[in-house]
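Convert to structure. Protein one:
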Amino acid sequence: MNLNLQQLDLNLLLVFDALMRERNLSRAALRLHRSQPAVSNALARLRAQLGQPLFRRTAKGLEPTAAALSLHVPVRQALHLLQAGLGSQEAFDPHTARTFRLSMNDYAQLRLLPGLVTRLKTLAPRLLLEVRPDEATSIPAQLASGELDLAIDYLYFDEPELRYQPLGEERLAVIGRQGHPAFRPGLDREAYQAAQHVSILPRVGRGSPLEIVLGSARVQRQVQLLVPHYLTIPDIVASTELLGTVPRRLAERFAGSHGLQLADVPFEMAPVQVNLVWHRQQEATPGLQWLREQIVQIEQG
């Protein structure tokens, strides 16, 4: 990759960053307050200066090449440093078109998104939220590169550049079908360990809060089924002999509609801390400050 800094127009890097974030020419143009032809022309100029393509057009939008992916992290860091040094970040206008990318699991989506979408419809009607699955191994890198703006997670990552805002605590509960013998007369540790379970598929390189708690409490489960999403567990346990251990608010939400029995976990465990996570580079970004405030107000309100 050939890059002559003396001939480089800083505006080309701003266009490149917007395209990497939006992966869409029209949305990048709206983000930059420029016309689509102007953004397309800027991309062509940058591609000519670098001597290689940066994006491929697909049915879903723009797909970055390997060269673009390797370039984006240093470009993003350089732009953040420049903005911080000049103190030139503009105030965020919630009525402008903007895309934010968040990572969270399906249960967090169910809990947060209805209230957030309702709030944004009034406060920021042109804002687009793109929600992605919580892939633990890639979250720190995606936050650093700007591919993700925020994550909602229970994990603390081994990355000193990440920042955390507590959103609240989750307690776990056990659910099973009505009449399940494990609940008679009450669910105890012995019955819990003797039963068959459905559980969340562990994320690569990381355990779930339940697995961490079970390990420290020396509790052994007989897991018969692993699934990727919390929201499938109520349906599964309602029509099988499996037990599921899920966030208590999720258990309470589905217990009535699915005819489920619900019990506390039969061993000592501390609540699970849920956090809003972002990269230090985004600490003072006005748009993300604003969005973080909305999420915190919904989660803690």
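Protein two, convert as well:
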Amino acid sequence: GVTLRAFPALMLPVILLFGIYGGATTPTEAAAVAAAYALILTAFFYRSLNWKGLYQILLESARSSAAVGLVIGGALILNYIVASENIPNQLAGVLKEVDIEPLMFLLGINLLLLLLGCVLDATTLILVVIPLFIPSCRALGIDLVHFGVVVVVNSMIGLITPPYGILLFVINATTGIPLRSIIKEIVPFLMALLVALATIVLSPDLVLWLPRLLGYNA
């Protein structure tokens, strides 16, 4: 039946989670195994992939990998310059001198990330901008796990905010719905994410209770 035919595809997240949480693979390796599994499944089990389709998949993968590679390369160069000039520690020293409260620092960072998220993709934001503020977080006593969750939620919001919101263009490309209509419908979800972000910023324990339950002591 339909369920039986869909069963191999439904095993994909199981392979991912078992590989990561079972300690068999790193997240990157698990993604590679899952991609290979999906490719084999599509080609031999469902027989819906021909040579032309495979070529298009490899072409798109190469383009995406090249774009990410360029971002990572640029980020490494920038991070080297920033580290050489000791900018993060200088920034942390300035913040300690002005005696800024951790909450005010987080609110400022949120505002900056929300603005940058409108024009930068999440990968660039995380690789280029975030390392600048990690020493400041340590100096102000902000838990890095809490800070990481704040960054991720900000990045999620950036994915659906114009003008760069990549998910808006993905929805537009796959459904043909005009961007104006998509943006109008996405506003309630955006508001919910902003409320969630405010709650996370104001309540670190809400984020940290599960890591602490699993032995996190920092």
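Residues 169 and 179 are 7 Å apart (CA to CA). The chain has a mean pLDDT of 84.
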